[in-house]
Amino acid sequence: NPWALRRISQASGLAPTFDPCGANGSGVTLIVIDSGVNPAHAEFAGRIRRLENFYTGAGADGGRDTNGHGTHVAGCAAGATTGPAPGAGIVSLAVTGPNGQYASSALAAALNWVLIPGNVQLPAVINISLSGEQRGASATVLEEAIASVMLNGIPVVVAAGNESWPSSWMYPASSAFALTVGATDVDDHPAVFSNHGPEVGLWAPGTGILAADWQDAPTGLKLSRGTSMASPVVAGVAARRASIVRSVPCAETTSTRAARRAKRASSSREKRATPTVSASAGSTSASESAKSSTS
C-alpha cells in the first residue's frame, strides 16, 4: 500500500488501504514517452504492448530503458503493485538516452507515431514526464503535435517540472492542450521543488514515490520524487477512469451521460479549483520532470 495509492483513494488524508474503485485500467493503453521501459520487470508482466525508440543518439536500445526514469514512471502509473492502473497495457516510446536528454524532434516524432492508425489500441492516455525550455519553432511543432493527439481523443498528462518556478517557463508544462501536474507531499503541501502557477491543473503525490527499479528487475522497487512521479499517478487514474467509461452500456454513453454532463457544466464554472487527485472523486496529482531531459 504505497502512500500515493492510499492518498488517491479518498478525498482527504490517507486511506487505510488502496481502493481501486472497481477498475484497474484493463482495456486501456498507457503510452509512456520517456527513457524507455525495462520489459523484464514483473511490475509490467504480460502488459508491454510495444517498445519503440525515437532517440537517435548513442546508447539507444530499441525502446528499452537506458536511464531508469521511464521504468519508474511507468510503475507509478501502471505498476502491478504500485500504480493506479495495474491492468493497463503499456506502450513505451523512448525519446531520451542514458543521460536523460531529449530532442524536441524526437518528442514530436513519438507523438506523431501515436496518431498512425493501428499503432495504438484505444482508449489511451499519454504521460510525458519531461520538461524543457523550448521556444519558437520547436515549441510550435510540439504544441501542434500535442494538440493533434488530444483532439483525436487521447489525453496528454505532463509533469509541471522541478525547478520551483512558474510552469509557464517550461514546456510541455505550459502547453494549452495538456494536463499539467504538480507534486505534493504526504501532508498535501506543494512539494518544495514543484513548479507552480495557473498552468498546473492538478496536484498529485510526488515525494517518496515507490515504483519499479529498472536495474533490479524483476522485482526491485525504489523511491523517487518529482513531478515526473506525480504526472503518471494522474495518468494512471485517467486510464482507470477510461476503463470504466468504455464498459458503460450504450444507453448510458448517449442521452443519459450527455444530460448529466450538461447539468454539471454550469455548476463546474462556479467551482473552479485544483483538487488533489482522488480516485473516488475523479481528481489526481504528483511527479518529476526534465530540462530538455527527464525531470
Q: Any overview of this molecule?
A:
With 295 residues, this protein is of the alpha/beta class. The chain has 6 helices and 11 strands. It has helices spanning 3-7, 69-78, 104-114, 137-151, 227-245, 250-268; strands at residues 29-34, 48-53, 89-94, 124-128, 130-131, 156-159, 179-184, 200-205, 209-212, 221-224, 293-294. It has a 7-stranded parallel beta sheet with strand order 2-3-1-4-6-7-8, sandwiched between helices. β2, α2 and β3 form a beta-alpha-beta unit. α2 runs parallel beside α5 and α3 runs parallel beside α4 (137-151). The radius of gyration is 17 Å and the shape is globular. Mean pLDDT is 85; it is low at 248-291.
Which keywords apply here?
7-stranded parallel sheet; 295 residues; 11 strands; 6 helices; alpha/beta; 17% strand; two-stranded antiparallel sheet; single chain
Summarize the structure.
This protein is an alpha/beta fold and 295 residues long. It has 6 helices and 11 strands. The protein has helices at residues 3-7, 69-78, 104-114, 137-151, 227-245, 250-268, and strands spanning 29-34, 48-53, 89-94, 124-128, 130-131, 156-159, 179-184, 200-205, 209-212, 221-224, 293-294.
